[in-house]
Design a protein that fits this description.
mainly alpha, 15 helices, repeat, PP2A_Regulatory_Subunit_A, protein phosphatase regulator activity, PP4R1 phosphatase
Length: 268
Amino acid sequence: EPTVRTELMEQIPPIAIFLQESRPKFPTAFFEYLMPIVVRYLTDVNNQVRKAGQEALLILLEQDLVAQSDIENKVCPILLDLSAPDSDDEYKVEAVNIICKMASMLSRTTVEHMLLPRFCELCSDGKLFQVRKICAANFGDICNAVGQEATERLLIPKFFELCSDSVWGMRKACAECFMAVSYTTSPEVRRSKLSPLFISLISDTCRWVRQAAFQSLGPFISTFANPSSAGLYVREDGTLSIRPSPQDVASCQASNNINFISSSTNVA
């Protein structure tokens, strides 16, 4: 019954955590028994079971419970098969979604060598706009996962394609992640390539694309600032934040000390 398999998948992460904590007693139980089940359920015929398997896999990766060998030899090959050009549409959409989500949890080498080539192919998928939209929505995360060199060499050309896609939702998704993409590139690429590209989005024929671009204008401009002097940086979740300068921290501490001394004097 699919409901039984789904329930089983929901129990895998807590069992895996228990086995990890009790590893001296069960040194190979997770790798021999549980991990093969998770991998197998990624291709289950029932979509609810597959969804539960995907969620379990992401939790296991987030908790750093999956060995690097299993990631490279078991998980990645399955995802590459599911996202292949001749794969079933539903499986392909699910596969690209989980590839994008797990990219930030894997090593840069694994992502660049095993998943990046397929991601670039999926960005140009002419059959399913849903696949391209997932790629566009997660483009910044993939850039962050592989770093500047791979971003400029392989991803920026694909980003240009998505920014000129015939589907306006694709262009809107690109506008929303523009800051994250820009943050990964060099100042020269930012100035010579991304700036003209952003102007095209902010002048788009679709008002939803223009609105998204205007909302990203400030964050995009912030990527031109010197982080050491401006204090701007991007958090792990992709949002822009401000790091207080040492002078501000010192000033705040001095103010707190004065307030503390004043309070102590009043009490006395």
